[in-house]
Amino acid sequence: MDKIFGFQFNKEQTGLKSLRWGDWFTLGLIVAFLAIGVHLAVAAPPAIYRQEISLEPVVLPWYALFSVVRMAGAYLLSILFTLFYGRAAAYNSRAEKILMPLLDVLQSVPILSFLPVVLLGLAAILPANMAAELASVVLIFTSQAWNLTFAWYQSLTTIPKELREASSIFRLGNWYQFKNLEMPFALISLIWNSMMSWAGGWFFLMAAESFTVGQKDFRLLGLGSYLHEASQQGNLQAVVWGLVVLVFVIVLLDQLVWRPLIAWSDRFKVEMVENDNPPTSWFYDIIKNSALSNWFFEKITAPVIERIDLTIAKNENHPAAFQTAAHHKRWWNAVFMVLAGSVLIFGLFQAVQYLNQLSLIQWQDIAIGVLATALRVFAALLIAIIWTIPVGVAIGSNPKISALFQPLVQVIASIPATALFPIMLMFILASPGGLNIAAVILMLLGTQWYLLFNIIAGANAIPQDLKFTANLMQLSTWQRWKTLTLPALFPYLITGAITASGGAWNASIVAEYVTFNNQTYSTTGIGALIAQATANGNYAMLLAATLSMIITVVILNRLVWRPLYRTAEETYRME
To answer: Distance of CA 213 to CAs 75, 389, 533, Å?
Structure first.
């Protein structure tokens, strides 16, 4: 076992692993839930919840506020899901066999496949307005949560062993270990992935606020529905107004939220030498130097945090707590197995009934569609990797470049390509490749940011002392990349590639089937089949096409990405 620049290199590499029982169990559960959701969707009322969308520019501030509130609610839900889910998968080997395959499946389920299940299923049991709002938040959550969870899981599994040993020596409980080790170590990655999550939320906001399945329709007041309506009517002036307001909101969030968080999180880098050019934020400087904010922290925030620390630590160390936790764990395991088994049996029965409705020709169309979309996904991912690695390293390792380009990247990444895509079609359809080229471009616009933001986070997390060491050794550019930059980036690159791959499959739905100015354009692909089935209310085809996409993505994740993930954990851990 060799070590270079503190990175541990094992001679033994993980080979390809076949699908495990956890994959099949979780896949069965997803099939069951989708089938049950489709069953509820069929019984949903024709008119769900439809609000008239005004295209007057004066309504845009209110629409923007509504969308930001939904995005914030979905992001809060995503963070809670990430912290609990990722920690359970990282520290419980038995749970990991279920949770990580389930996460692979969930991040591969297209948002338009979630829509009928979530919206129409909720509409069958809740009031129309409540079902629409709750469904919108849940659907935005499905575009935000997965990359955050993968980043948190990757951080927990790559914490240096010496830091783990130090926490054991100091006998830190679960809460203090989370607070003083896990969260600080993962913070930089979580912040950059949070920005990516918001960008992903904006990307799919149009689908989450305005949606039609067959004769069932719903619309919510918001920026997404505004841009969707403007695009449907071919109103380019309204599209421009909507994008201007969206860009303004993104810049405002960048300056008031993300830049201050990046400047604050620099203190948590694992390094022995202080950064000469740390990231800065004017708003963070104002807050840090404000007497009012300092008083609020000392008199209110600090005492509340101390009380929480003492309460949690007391409960953790109480002898009865362990017995109670073990009893509850056994009880919950039994309840989960009973419920999961019941859902699995009923859901699979419903799924078989729907899938039996399809003819052999339709299954052939699905197989051809999966292959066509897979080729586009591969092309988009390859193009994204080629340009995001050098650009991400430049932004993440140079504070001056970061201060200039990070806000620009955040703005560009957050602009929903789905709003611009219909306009692009007017120029691309006349080209030799037609919609095939356009679909690859839109997939690229929807996936490249997952890679870029993770690479920026990886480059930003490289310790300053390792950079100084590389300078002292007078390494050439290639030697520096080979022995320091690429090994340090590898875990972040794999995390970005997994989420980018899932994002590309998701983006295929809006890339291969487009409606603009009351005209529909489509090409061969599984995304087009899903979008067409959704628009026509063909639930059997929707279920079959969605499951085909899920199975394909799960196999790719298991045979390609998961072994690379293990390599990142075992070979490129920073020690």
So the answer is: 26, 39, 8
Structure tokens at 504: 């590309």
Q: Is 560 exposed, middle or buried (0-12, 13-18, 19+ CB in 10 A)?
A: middle
Residue 425 and residue 438: Cα distance in Å, rounded? 7
Task: Extract long-range pairs of 370-374: CB within 8 Å, 24+ residues apart.
Answer: 370/526, 370/548, 370/549, 370/552, 372/523, 372/524, 372/525, 372/526, 373/505, 373/508, 373/512, 373/525, 373/526, 373/527, 373/549, 374/552
Residues 6+ apart with CB under 8 A from 84: none
Return the pLDDT at 431.
64
Tokens of 518: 């009351």
Looking at residue 521, what is its pLDDT? 73
In the sheet where 47-50 sits, what is the strand order?
Answer: 47-50, 216-219, 210-213
Reduced to 3 states, what is the DSSP secondary structure of residue 66? helix
What is the greatest pairwise CA distance in the chain?
73
**pLDDT value, residue 24:** 65
The SS3 assignment for 4 reads: strand
The SS3 of residue 2 is: strand
The closest of 237, 5, 536 to 229, measured between CA atoms, is: 237
pLDDT for 70 equals 92
Q: How far apart are CA 115 and CA 531, in angstroms?
A: 11
Residue 517, by phi and psi: left (phi above 0), alpha (psi -120 to 50) or beta? left
26 neighbors 347 (Cβ within 8 angstroms): no
R_g of the chain computed on alpha carbons: 24
Nearest residue to 463 via CA among 156, 185, 209: 185
| CA distances for 456 relative to 155, 245, 406, angstroms | 15, 27, 9
Cα–Cα dist 271/469, whole Å: 12
Mean pLDDT by 10 residues, the chain (575 residues): 44 42 64 67 55 85 92 94 90 78 72 64 72 83 86 86 82 81 88 85 78 66 86 80 88 87 82 66 83 80 80 63 50 63 70 80 90 91 91 84 76 68 65 73 81 85 80 83 85 84 79 72 84 78 84 81 77 65
CA dihedral 147, 92, 72, 252 (to 10 degrees): -50
Q: How far apart are CA 367 and CA 6, in angstroms?
A: 46
Beta pairing, strands 216-219 & 47-50 = parallel
Give pLDDT, residue 13.
Answer: 39
Contacts of 265 (CB under 8 A, 6+ apart): 187, 188, 191
Give the pLDDT score at 428.
67
Are 348 and 24 contacting, i.e. CB atoms less than 8 angstroms apart?
no
Beta carbons of 256 and 287 less than 8 angstroms apart = no
Residue 111 is encoded by which pair of tokens? 């948002």
Alpha-carbon distance of 325 to 416, in angstroms, equals 45
Q: How far apart are CA 432 and CA 223, in angstroms?
A: 34
Pick from 284, 485, 465: which is nearest to 397 by CA? 485
How far is residue 123 CA from its own chain's centroid? Answer: 26
